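Input/output pair, single chain:
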Amino acid sequence: MARERRKKVSTTISPESYAFLRELIRRGRAENLAQALDLVLEEIRRADNRRRLEQATAEYYQNASQESIDEENSLAAAFADMSGGIIFDE
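Output:
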């Protein structure tokens, strides 16, 4: 899959944010400011996705019938029983 052409952004940031980005470069987590900023934005997107998933899961269980919850628990127990026979070191 071809990578999309990068977009140019020109802005100012706080000295603390700039220092944080430079520290990511110094520690070898990014090669330059663009990669450091991409890394930070990726973390924010991941946290936002996790928050939305947690919210959707909580809403599902708040609105689910007891029958649905019992079925979920039964499936989870069955999967747990099956996974006991898996040997991960092979």
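Residues 15-82 form one domain. The first helix runs from residue 15 to 26.
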